[in-house]
Design a protein that fits this description.
Blueprint: E1 4-9, H1 15-24, E2 28-30, H2 38-43, E3 50-53, E4 72-77, H3 80-89, H4 103-112, H5 114-118, E5 122-125, H6 131-143, E6 153-161, E7 172-175, H7 196-203, H8 206-228, E8 233-240, H9 246-258, E9 263-269
Parallel strand pairs: 1-3, 1-4, 2-3, 4-5, 6-8, 6-9, 7-8
Helix pairs in contact: 1-6, 8-9
């Protein structure tokens, strides 16, 4: 069965780069598809993946957007400061330039795109991605991101550091800073949550056991609700201070717990390789 995607997101978040990926892989797409034609586009007979781009160029017509009509929605986003910088460097006019420039334009566009972001199955934060990394994320999402045969839900589980900004891609975010920090153990400080000594130390903490057990129950329950509503993707994130220890351990541990439930898991660590200035 073919998959239809709606590609959307903020101006400056990388839609042009995403379209380059689609062109390279010869994916059929329609740029700036009117909202009123979404249902008809999704219903067309096809045997390959197709994409419709819908964004702020349609202005207030976006208020009529009522979901993907059976299509999956991928929303490209970035931090406001990144978007403002990219807009300043761009020679292309902003689609709602009449609302102002810089932060004013970003704020107005965010309000306009609320229905599309709310409908998103996948959100990609491009703030710190290189063009090559964004190419790969788009390809992984649109060209290959579908549950394997026999699985019921595809779930991305990620870790991040709050000091480097929130994980805006996630549907569920859990704060693991309530757990004692292995950073203050001299022998563990240079390691990460991918190393066995850190993993063992974190998972021995009563707070970690309690948090992991309750997140497991909650996310398993949420996964069932997603399946009931025909959602096939979910993103769960754990945050800690630097994104190198506690959040990494919990992300890996939750993935191990979810797989026996028929949930296809992909684990991604956003900040594990960043040096900690402390």
């Amino acid at each position: 069965m073919s998959t239809v995607w709606i590609l959307t997101g903020m101006t400056g978040a990388g839609k042009t780069t995403a379209l380059t990926v689609l062109q390279q892989h010869r994916v059929d797409y329609v740029d700036n598809l009117p909202v009123d034609l979404v249902e008809g586009f999704v219903a067309l007979p096809r045997n390959a993946t197709a994409v419709a781009v819908i964004d702020a160029r349609q202005g207030t017509a976006l208020r009529r957007f009522e979901g993907g009509a059976g299509a999956r929605v991928v929303f490209l986003d970035a931090r406001d400061d990144v978007l403002v910088r990219r807009l300043a460097e761009s020679t292309r006019p902003h689609p709602i330039a009449d609302k102002g420039r810089g932060q004013d334009a970003v704020d107005a566009e965010r309000r306009l795109l609320v229905p599309l972001r709310a409908a998103a199955d996948v959100i990609i934060d491009t703030s710190d991605l290189s063009p090559e990394q964004l190419h790969q994320r788009v390809a992984d999402t649109i060209l290959a991101r579908r549950p394997e045969a026999g699985t019921r839900l595809a779930c991305t589980i990620s870790s991040f550091g709050y000091k480097f900004g929130p994980q805006i891609e996630a549907d569920w975010v859990f704060d693991s800073r309530v757990i004692p920090n292995p950073f203050w153990e001299p022998e563990l400080r240079p390691l990460t949550g991918l190393d066995r000594p850190v993993r063992d130390w974190v998972l021995k903490q009563p707070e970690a056991k309690y948090l992991l057990e309750h997140v497991d129950v909650l996310i398993t329950w949420a996964a069932e609700r997603c399946i009931d509503r025909d959602r096939t993707y979910m993103h769960v994130a754990f945050g800690c201070t630097g994104g190198r220890h506690r959040s990494v351990v919990l992300a890996e541990a939750l993935a191990e717990r979810l797989r026996p439930h028929g949930i296809e898991t992909t684990v991604r660590h956003r900040d594990v390789d960043r040096p900690d200035p402390r």
